[in-house]
Protein 1
Amino acid sequence: MKFFLISDNIDTQMGMRLAGIEGVVVHERHEVLMELEKAMHNEEIAIVLITTKLIETCPEVISELKLRQLKPLIVEVPDRHGKHKIGETIDRYVSEAIGVKL
């Protein structure tokens, strides 16, 4: 089972490649959705890492996939911009999944 990165910048991609994780750099919503679709149909990929900035391009799709799909696991990776609060995102996903505000 492999990791796969969908990133909005080359710095994150290069850092992940040093750790042995392959990936792509994209910038547009349709590119994100296309790469995510490819990763979801690749049986070797177990975890898809996506930078925060790209998740913000299609949050409704990513949220739905996180809640409904068993594989691959989609994980948000904080990017170099660092302005997004991951804790708030996790709280929102849990609240949507169980129907209770934390």
Note: The chain has five helices and four strands.
Protein 2
Amino acid sequence: MYQTILNLHSYWAYIVLLILIIATFNAIIKSAGGKEYSAKDFRVSLFTLIVSHIQLLIGIVLYFVSERFSLWSELGGEVMGNSLARLYLVEHPLVNIIAVALITIGYSKHKKKLTSKAKLKTIAIFYTIALVLFLSRIPWSTWMS
């Protein structure tokens, strides 16, 4: 079961990153170009929100079924001293939860804006920060192998 959830979490991450990159660059380009917000922009933003929340749920399940979770009891307070354990048990989950929260906040705030420029700017700001956070905490050595 663990390996299945791990594979799902890893492959779903590709989808999340792809959709988040599309949504982010779409908002940045349209905002900079002064273009109008359209139904397509709404759908892309919503799809980004949905796939990121699914990834979060998969990640939460993976966190608790992972063999690494037992490091909390084995290492105790030394988890923070072990860089690999800290990445998997603290940094990766915490930063990615913050990134999903930013996507959620950006999506919610953009719906309340009245002009196209304000809607696109809100999405661009929040989704860009979330993208940077996601990219900063991906365990690249494990993920790309």
Note: The mean pLDDT is 88.
Protein 3
Amino acid sequence: MHRMIAALIFLALLALPASAQQDVERQKIAYLIESVATLQGATFIRNGTEYDAKRAADHMRLKLRFAGSRVKTAEDFITCCGTGSSVSGIQYTIRFHDGRTIDAATFLHGKLAGYEARMASGAH
């Protein structure tokens, strides 16, 4: 089922003009950043230092600006801006209010998959 949804999304993206595809990807990236910014009670751990959700989202926005044209898709954003430190190589993690910890890339990929599934089903 997931492969069929992914294939439909891929085909739909191929049919869009380049500027429309860029808009779709920018919307996905904005959604991912907003998903981070609005996490209640979460702690983001970057290079061993803890940050709240707003500061983590601000950092991702900064990294996005510095990445420039290297980030064309939401997947590029996750890889370049949401996975880990480009300086130390240490992966970013998220500790939720219940103590559960997940790496940021896994969280962002899950959010992206949910967003794409909603868009494919027509639910906005």
Note: The first strand starts at residue 43 and ends at 46.
